[in-house]
Amino acid sequence: NACVVIVGAGHAGGSAAAFLRQYGHEGRIVLIGDEPLLPYQRPPLSKAWLKGEADADSLALKPAEWYGENNVSLRLSGVAERINRAAKTVTLASGEAISYDFLILATGARARQLPIPGSDLAGVLALRTAADAELLKHALGPGKRLAVIGGGYVGLEAAASARALGAEVVVVERESRVLARVACETLSTFFQDYHRARGVTFELNAGVEAFEGEGDHIRGVRLSDGRLLPCDVALVGVGAIPNDELAKDAGLTTANGVVVDLAARTEDPAIFAIGDVTHRPLPLYERQFRLESVPNALEQAKQAASAILGRPGPAPEVPWFWSDQYDLKLQIAGLPFEADRTVVRGDVAAAKFAVFHLKGDLLQAVEAVNAPPEFMAGKQLIAKRAPVSVEKLADTSVSMKEVAA
Ligand code: FAD
């Protein structure tokens, strides 16, 4: 009847509580979260929810009654400040010290800020929490001008949603293409063209020098070349930083995230870490990596709950991710480590295609736009680690089922 304390009531932390109960844990569970809300899903914050197509209730991971019915003790608006590993306690900002037999760190990541003048002006926003999303939604509407700083997935999704709300959108990107860190050039070009055709403008290879204000509110983004892009609101989407300080202060190893094994365990056998905050093994690729995705949060929540209950862990999954923009459903499986060639299958112009990344004849990753069969079969092929025929992959007259057989 061990007591499990979970720090971070986000997707990973909330799911860990659920898996513990589902797997039969009868001991105490305490879930500590510094946001005022019950665990909720973040993906809709830049998509359906921002466009007004999903209500707040639909974001919740579990209905409010679930926590009482399952005897999960909540500390919402509770900030965990310190871990005492010798005494096995977590101390909150309120002064409360909570004892644990097992501790799960699920503190996620926070939006990276830009260290430039004007970052504290009203209307310079980030998009990580429901509170952030609320501010952004209120700032958008017909005729409002949004400047998105950073052409990553969150920035592009917000751009698409803002267009749906009638706002004017410019995306400012330091690199020569959007999604430069996370997608191949074919995909970047495709998304840029798709957004442009829907009224978004791009400033590529563009540095941001400052946010300029009128009073205390933003009125424009000053670029490094001296131009001012007028705007009513700016969204800074330049990546996320893992909230690993609590672990680091407790002497646990961190390396862009808390280092864990395949059971999501840190070097302290009583402490686990899951979700965006971890630097985890990827057995398929024989390396460690930090992933930021819901499937990763769920997989590691299962790993930790299984280990705590002495059950066999889940089979390792192929990492995957999705993004929705306009009528596009992008699905990505795997990671293109050391890939030396790409194969495009389908019709890019018709917005229905997949890009496969191979290392020799092994499939490392697939990026699929409105192409679920390519995504599904690609994911299976990545897991199999068996040689793939490039000719068959490129040939749409051969079904993906056949390619994967
Ligand atoms: P989080 O969900 O961030 O939860 C961590 C929680 O811990 C937070 O509430 C944080 O405030 C809290 N916390 C931190 N420190 C403390 C402390 N000391 N004490 C108490 N509480 C603390 N993923 C996808 O797979 N597909 C998508 O389409 C997608 N879209 C996204 C869109 C947006 C706008 C964002 C922001 C993310 C998106 N993601 C998407 C990523 C996905 O939401 C994250 O990978 C997932 O939320 C990670 O879960 P987590 O529990 O590790 O972190």
UniProtKB/TrEMBL annotation:
Signal peptide: none annotated. This is Ferredoxin reductase. It comes from the Bacteria. The keyword Nucleotide-binding does not apply. Residues 320-403 form the Reductase C-terminal domain. The keyword Nuclease does not apply. Its cofactor is FAD.
